[in-house]
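Hey, resending since the last one bounced:
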Amino acid sequence: MASDFPRKPAAPPQEPGGRPAPLEPTLPYDPGAASSAPSSDRAPTRVWSPPHPPQAAHPPQAPPPQQAAHPPQAAQPQQAPPPASAPAPRLPLRARVVAALRALFAALRALFQRRQGGVGPRPPRRAQLLRWGKRLAIALACLLAAATIAFLLVVRHYESDLPTTAELKNYNPPQVTRFLARDGTVIGELFVERRTLVPVTEIPPAMSLAALAAEEARFYKHDGLNYLGMLRALIVNLRSAEARQGGSTITQQVVKNVLLTHERTLDRKIRELLLARRIEQELTKDQILELYLNHIYFGHGRYGVEEAARFYFGKSIRQVTLAEAALLAGIVKGPSFYSPRVNSERAEKRRAFVLGQMREKRFMPAAQIDAALAEPIRLAPEPEHSDELAPEVLAEAERALRQAVGPEARYGGYTVVTSIDPKMQAAARAAVRQNLDAYAARHGLVAPFARAKGDPAPFQGAPSDPNRAYLGAVTGADDARGTLAIRVGTAQGTVDLRKERRYNPRGLPPSRFAEIGKVLRVRFAGDPGAGKLRLDLGPQGALIAIDPRTREILALVGGYEGVRGGLDRASHAHRQPGSTFKALVYGYGIHARKLTAASMLETNPEALEGYQPGNYDESEGQSPKRLREALAHSVNVAAVAALRDVGPEAVVAWARELGITSKLGADLSLALGSYEVTPREMAGAYATFAAGGTYQEPVLVTRITGPRGEALPAPARPPPRPVMTAAEAYITTDLLTSVVKVGTAKQALSLRRPIAGKTGTTNNARDAWFVGYSTDVACAVWTGFDDATPLGAREVGSSAALPAFIAFMEKAHAGRPATDFPEPLGIARLDIDPETGMIAMPGQESAVQEVFLEGTEPTGVALPDPAGILPALGDLFRTQ
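The C-alpha cells again:
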C-alpha cells in the first residue's frame, strides 16, 4: 500500500569508487503543454538529468500533491560590500588593448559553454539553432566592436606623434647650388643631394605619364591607398615566401621618402598608411606627383628628374623626348641595375616595358610609342669634374652666398654667377703650372732623384707641425701600392706617388722614383701621427687677372694643385711685393706734383743717411738717374730717395686709397716692398692706373638667384672713388711701359702690344713678382715657397714670375687687337736732356722726348758739357 507521504528521492547511482554516474539526456520539454508546465517553485527542467536508478521491486509511486516539503529557510543576511579600492594606475595602450581582448574572449567562452544544472527535455533543433545563431551574432558583434575599439586606439596612438604634412606644403629638400662663369658655364657645384626642383607644370606630360606607367597607372583614381594592389602584392609575396612586390602607391612613396624613414617595421608602415590618407586630403594629385618626381633617386648621385635629365642626356627635363622620359622612368625601379651608364641593354628592355605600359593604358598615341621604341639610346658625355678649374673661386663664391642669404644657403638651390672667364681661368692655371714646372726643371726637382754630396741633412727630432715642411730620408718603396716610405725625424710616413704627378710626370714606379737615403722635402697631410706625407719639393704660385674697366675678376689661381679647400694664395697669401711697390711710390710723387718723369734721383747708397740699401746691379750708383731710368732698371737707392722726398706717411695713406689694406710701415724700407701684401691688392692698385686713376674694389660674384628664380642682392660693393687724375695715371702708366721696353721685363715685348708693369724680387729671392697690365687686363703673378725658403741663385721676378704673366696674357688677348693706352687731356711733351732732365738745347742730338703733367714741365735749359765746349769751338773755327 502506498504511503501518503512522499518518498525520499533515491540517491543518484554511483560508479565504483564513489564517483557519481554520468548524466543521461532526458526527453525534451514540450513547451506547448501548458497544463503540464511545472509550477513556479519547481526547479526548471535541465537539458541533462541523472540516469534512472535500477528498476525497484515496487512500481514508483505518483508524486504527492504539490506542497512545500520543508518550510522555507530563513534568508541569509547579505554581506556588506567591500570598501572601494584606490583607482588603479592608467595602463599603456598596448596593455589596455590586450586586457580588453582577454575580457572579450572570456565572455565569449562563457557564452558558448553549456550551463550545468536543471532537468528537462532537450529543446527542438530549430530553437537550438536559433539560440546558437543569436550567440554567434552576439559574438561577432562583440568581436567587431572590439576590433573597432582596438583600431581606433591604434590610430589614436600613432596619430599622436605623426609628422605634420605642412612640411610637404613647404617642401624644401637639399638642392644643388651651381656656380657659373660669366658665360653660364658651370665651374662648380655645392650640394648634399644633387637635386634641382622643377614645378610640375614645367615637367613635360611625357615624363609624368611615363612615371605613372612605370610605377602606378591608377594614381589619379584612388585616395592614397591602392587596396587591390596591396592585396595582390600580399598574395605574390606569400606565394614566393619573400618580398618580391610592393603595394605602395606614389603617395606612400612620397610619405616614406620625405616624412619617414626606409626602415622595414610595422610601426613605420602604419604611420605611412595614415599619412598617405592625410596627404591625399590636404594636397592635390599634381602636388603629390611634383613631390615624387623631384625627390626620387635616379642613380649616380642624382635626385629628381631635372638632375637625371642633365646627367643622362645633357639637357633640362623640359626638353626630353618620349623615349628619354620612358628611359628615366624605368631607372627608378633599380638605379644601379637599370642605369644606361651601367648596362644599356637592360635599360633598353626596361624602357620598352614602360612604353608598353603606356600603350596598354593608352597614355600616348601608338604612333608616338612606336617611334620611341625605335629611337636609339643617346647619352650625353659623362660630365667631368670641373672643381680643378677654379676651386678658389668656389670657396669665395660660397662665402658670398652665405653672406647674402645666411643659414638658408645650406639648403641649396641657388645659382651664383661669377665674373670668371672660363678660357682665361684655364689659361691662368696652365700658365702657373708651366712656370713652376720650368722652375723645377731648372733646379732638378723632377724624378728620378739620386743621392748627392750636397744633399742637406734630414730633420732630426719629433715632427709636430702639420703646416711646416720637413726634410725626410727615403727608407723604402712599394711598387705594388705605389708608395714611397720616408722617415721624418722619429716619424715614419708614406707618400702616394699616384697623387704626385707634378714631380713624377713620367709616372716612374716608387723604386725608380728616388734612391734609398735620398733627402726630400715633404709635408704631413694632416696629423703627423697619421703618417701621410705629400711632396713639397718646389715653390707655389698665384695669379689674378682683373678687367680694368669693370674691376671684375677674370681669373683666379691660388696654387699649383687647384683643389677644393686649398689655400688661395692670390687672395690670402701676404708676401713682400719687392720692387713692384715702387710704382706706388713714384705714382704718388707724380700725383703730389713732387716728382716728374725727368726728376733726377740719387743712385749712390752712400748719399743716403740712415737706411742705405744696395742696388741689385752693382754697376748702378755711379751717377744720378732720371726717374724713368731708375724705374725701368729697378734701382733701389733711387726709390728710397724718392720716398724720402715725398714722405713715407703720405705714401702709406695713398696706398690705402689704392686698395692696399694690409699693414704698412711708414719708413724708407717701404719703397722696396718690405711690408707684406697680397697679389689681389697689388692687381687692384695697378688696375687703378690702367683705369685712369679711379679705384674700385675687385668683384667676383656678380649675381645670385634663389631656388625659385628670384633675384637676390649680391654682397654690397663700395662705390668707385677717384684716387688720381687721368693725366696722372697716364704718366704713371707711361713710366711703367719703360720697364717692358728697355728695363727688366723686356721679355714681355713678345706680346706685341703695349704693356705696362714692374718686376719684383725680395731679399734672398724669397718672393718673385710681376704685376702689369694692358688696356684690357691687369694681372699680378707671384712665385715663392710657403715657408719663405729662398728660390735659389739667379731667380728673380723676370725669370720666376714674368713667364707666367706672358703665357697668360698671350691667351687672354687672343683675337683682340693691340690698343695703346689713351692719352688724356693735361699732358705736355717736351724734348729733354737725358743727363740732366732739363729742356734740351735746340738741335741737341741726344735729346729724348718726355711726358709731363701740364704745369710741371722743367723750366731750365740744359747747358752743354763744359768739357766739350772748347773742342766744339775748335771744330767751328776750322770749318770756317
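The first strand starts at residue 24 and ends at 25.

Sorry for the duplicate.
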